[in-house]
Each structure stands twice: as C-alpha cells, then as structure tokens.
Amino acid sequence: MADLDKLAGGRFVIFGRAGMDLYPDPPGTKTEEAATFFSCLGGSSANIGVALTRHGGHCSLVTSVSDDAIGRFAVNELAKYGIDHSHVKSVGAELRTSLAVVETRVEDHQSVIYRNGAADFEMTIEDVSAVDYSQFDALITTGTVFAQQPSRDAVFHGFELAKVAGLPLIFDVDYRPYSWVSPADAAATYSRAAAACDIVIGNDVEFGFMAGAFDRGLEKARALANDSAQIVIYKMGEEGAITITADGEFRTGIYPVDVLKPTGAGDSFMGGFIAALSAGHDVKDAVLRGSACASMVVSRVGCAPAMPTTPELEAFLNAHPGPTDVD
Hints:
By secondary structure, the chain is of the alpha/beta class. Helix content is 35%, strand content 22%. The protein has a single domain, classed as Ribokinase (UDP-N-acetylmuramoyl-L-alanine:D-glutamate ligase), CATH 3.40.1190.20. It has ten helices and 13 strands. The protein has a nine-stranded mixed beta sheet, with helices on both faces.
C-alpha cells in the first residue's frame, strides 16, 4: 500500500490519450448545422493533466500520437498548457490521433468520437520503461488505455515500475464500450486494474459494469476499499457521490449550475480532487472541491480550456450557496 502523503509533491505521470476536440460554434449549434468549429486539446488523460496543472501540479503524459497534423496539434496543446510531452511518441502508418466532435448543448447532445486505428494504443512496454518514476509522486491512468494491446500490457508493466518507486496508483475507470472487443474482457481487465490501485474513481454504471450488474456496483466499490484501495469514489451524477475509505464512508452532493454540456465533468473532478489532496485538504473537502470543478467545467465551453484555476475555484466556492443536501 503506497503512502498517499506523497501526493503533496504534486508531480504526476499520466498514462493515456491526448487528442483534438472540435466544438460547433457558437454554443448551442448542432453539428450537422455548423459552419464554424472551435478546436482544443482533448482526450481524458490530457484533460486531467490540464486540470492538475491549472491547480499548480506538474504533469508528464505518456502516450502515442499520430505523425500528422492532428498529432502535432495535440503535442502543441500539451506544451501550451505546460504538460511535459517528452514521453509522447509519434507513430506513422494508418494510425490516427483521437478526434472528437462535441456539442455545447444539453438537449439532444451529440458527441462523435473517431477512434479507428487509434494511435494511443501503440504505447509499449519500452515506452513506460523509459520513465524515471523516482521523479514523480503518483501515477494516474484512465481506463481507455486497457482496451487494446500493446497499451494494456504496457500500463500494467508501468504499474509495477511505479509501485517499486513507491508511487500511489490512481485509476479513473472511464469505460468507453466502443473501444473494447467484448464487455467480459473489459470487466475483467478493469477489475484487475482497480485491484492494483490506491485510489479508484468511477460512476455507478462503471462500478456496476465491473460487478456484472448495476445494482451490485456499490458492493463492488466497497469490496475494493476493503481489499485493496485506500479511497474509492462511487459517483452518481446529479445524486452526488459516495466516498469509501478505511475510516468508513460518506456521501456528498453536487454544486448546481446552469449546464451548457454534459462532457468534461469526470476529468475535471479527478484533477480537482487529486489537486486538493496534494494541497493537504482532507478527503471530504477534496471530494467537494472536485465536485465544484466538475460543475464549473460543464457550465463552460470546451473541456481542457474550461478547467478552472485554483483562484477561480475559490471564487466559485465563495459565491456558490453550497452543494445539494444528501441527508
């Protein structure tokens, strides 16, 4: 079991994809009616890196991008946000960087993600072995990395190297069905990954998926907290979250806002939560700060550019009446 106090160092190595997001502009426009699009950095792991850097963290992303204009766009965006990309590898052939077309609207929202021949699945054991884990304080990964080889074996190998270096392992389940060969393979692989990690974050659907039935999701989360993980967060959308630790469990609400879009909340929550733990906040306060970050992002355009800074988060918390009541 890793020492979570290491998070105070604020240096994070992150496994997973970076890509390009395109948003029909102006907000509210449907994709099929759009004449103009707004581009920004995308990909769940890259978004988490942005969220952490906005709160003063230092992040390095380990992934692969296509050797083309879209891959170079992703690398340029990482540099713009101050994320180290020295472990981002370019790959050729017909491999492509992830591209998402995402609407800034709630009603009839459409997100179209292009993942054919995804370049990020080309991350290898050699790539993760090249990382000096002694220079980091925690490893973060999202579930997308496990969907195909060689990325899957690479990440599990990276887990072992990080453990030897004493790093806490942090896992955002982030289940995307379209990337997997079968649901059974996904459930077994996610369960294996979750059992290896110190902090596991997912929503009720994802935990239910791992458990084999939606109504057993909370049971799965509690079992992980009992057997291996130090912190497990079971998110329930508008109903808030249940956080489970060795000291017991507690429930928290959400911060209501005027929502522009449903995307980006999970990445922002992860970044805000981990940044808060890194800054010395207790677990409950960290969960609430993560929840506030999630609300801020869904009320703004984009994902990466919508991630709040610490001063913006403090201003939001000071002005907001508070989270919903869960009693």
